Automatic annotation (TrEMBL):
One of its GO terms (molecular function) is arogenate dehydratase activity. The gene is LOC115719371. Residues 147-324 form the Prephenate dehydratase domain. This is Arogenate dehydratase. It comes from Cannabis sativa (Hemp). Converts the prephenate produced from the shikimate-chorismate pathway into phenylalanine. Its main location: plastid. Its EC number is 4.2.1.91. The lineage of its organism: Eukaryota, Viridiplantae, Streptophyta, Embryophyta, Tracheophyta. GO terms for cellular component: chloroplast stroma.
Length: 441
């Protein structure tokens, strides 16, 4: 299957594959999805006197949201506690008076705060129930197979991640990460599955930036063991090679091994691993190898010259699943929550923010900083001549607690006091699959 691209679809394409700006028309049905409002409402449920926490069914929850949305607006509009709506608009580029990215959370009585030393399962309920798709996100509205957008072509690791996250889904290849976001926003796909970090290569920065730019919600995560192979056309030997092409992450994950194999050849980055294999095959390149999966070798008729060439056998990529609507956060199984914030002026702000989690014994699993693109530099100087420059950042934090957990709600209420911008990207079940360093392809 050809990936959705940024160029217009050819007329003889049976299946409309995703192309960035040229995504045709919206589907006929109109549906208002709750986006940010829903998240806020769900998180506010205790402080808004919903004795059972978030609604027990999706419709309860959504109607609670409808009621609470107006309260959120009326309560938050006059106050400018965390930098003000204008500021948030500046950060996010949305010209709305009330930007619901700003999480208006009231602190809940510390009695109910789960105390320090507890884990995220503060109800002491068993955590062994296996996850199902319905736990991760609402079912697709069209009643058929779940359509999952990923970046790359068939044989890419992202396709394998889509299959792990949603077995039996219809995986939809997209040529760019951005296109996968748009596919979900435009109802062409129900979910997107995107790599966010790798145990060797680190963060996939592009996707951090896109998470902020788009309004999708993280509804799950999967960790995929990534087992790379060196692929070449049949009959090609290592000695013939003058270059190796692959996704930049895959090149980074195999750098030492390539050198150990004596491959002091040019490395070239392409959009995805399987796309590299497809390219070598399509152009009959006998001096070029691709780093990709064994499945890509099968699909594109390539030979495996070397197997397991990642620099560490336990190479893992973490993917996040994105949807138009958030899931209802729960406390009966381990959840993770991802937030992004920009800190306000003041000293030790980052320390104070992180303390809000530490004091509640909430573990952080990841912190990432990215340039604050709307305000990249702050000039600081006593004489105000602008000689000292501070870089400004957006901080992305993942922590191990559900937004239905009062400890997390209170931690965020505190965080909000020190930040000029705060958005919950999603609260979702942690991937608890037992570690099995088997082939990831
Ligand atoms: O190129 C692919 O196969 C991908 O799915 C992309 C990607 C990435 O972006 O990190 C995913 C997993 C591996 O870490 C290498 C590449």
């Amino acid at each position: 299957m050809k990936a959705l691209t940024t160029t217009p679809p050819s007329t003889n394409n049976l299946k409309p594959l995703i192309r960035s700006p040229a995504v045709p028309t919206r589907p006929n049905f109109i549906r208002v999805y709750p986006t940010r409002v829903s998240i806020q409402c769900a998180y506010r449920s205790e402080s808004m006197n919903f004795p059972n926490g978030v609604g027990s069914s999706r419709s309860d929850w959504q109607s609670s949201c409808a009621i609470l949305a107006s309260k959120v607006v009326s309560q938050e509009q006059p106050t400018d506690k965390a930098g003000g709506a204008d500021h948030v608009a500046a950060v996010n580029g949305h010209k709305t008076a009330i930007d619901l990215n700003l999480v208006p959370i009231e602190k809940v009585s510390e009695e109910n705060d789960g105390g320090c030393g507890g884990n995220s399962n503060n109800n002491n309920k068993p955590v062994s129930k296996p996850l199902t798709i319905t736990d991760l996100s609402p079912a697709p509205m069209h009643g058929s197979q779940l359509r999952v957008a990923y970046q790359g072509v068939p044989g890419a690791y992202s396709e394998a991640a889509a299959g792990k996250a949603y077995p039996n889904c219809e995986a939809i290849p997209c040529d760019q990460f951005e296109v996968a976001f748009q596919a979900v926003e435009l109802w062409i796909a129900d979910r997107a599955v995107l790599p966010i970090e790798n145990s060797l290569g680190g963060s996939i920065h592009r996707n951090y930036d896109l998470l902020l730019r788009h309004r999708l919600h993280i509804v799950g995560e999967v960790q995929l063991p990534v087992h790379h192979c060196l692929l070449a056309l049949p009959g090609v030997r290592k000695e013939y090679l003058t270059r190796v092409i692959s996704h930049p992450q895959a090149l980074a994950q195999c750098e030492l091994t390539l050198t150990k194999l004596g491959l002091n050849v040019a490395r070239e980055a392409v959009d995805d691993t399987a796309g590299a294999a497809e390219y070598v095959a399509a152009h009959n390149l006998r001096d070029t190898a691709a780093i990709a999966s064994a499945r890509a070798a099968d699909l594109y008729g390539m030979n495996i010259l070397a197997d397991g060439i990642q620099d560490d056998s336990s190479n893992v990529t973490r993917f996040v699943m994105l949807a138009r609507e958030p899931i209802i956060p729960r406390t009966d199984r381990p959840f993770k929550t991802s937030i992004v914030f920009a800190h306000d002026k003041g000293t030790s702000v980052l320390f104070k923010v992180l303390s809000a989690f530490a004091f509640r014994n909430i573990s952080l699993t990841k912190i990432e900083s990215r340039p604050h693109r709307n305000r990249p530099i702050r000039l600081v100087d006593d004489a105000n001549v602008g000689t000292a420059k501070h870089f400004e950042y957006m901080f992305y934090v993942d922590f191990e607690a559900s937004m239905a957990d009062v400890r997390a709600q209170n931690a965020l209420a505190e965080v909000q006091e020190f930040t000029s911008f705060l958005r919950v990207l999603g609260s979702y079940p942690m991937d608890m699959t037992p570690w099995c360093p088997s082939r990831g392809d």
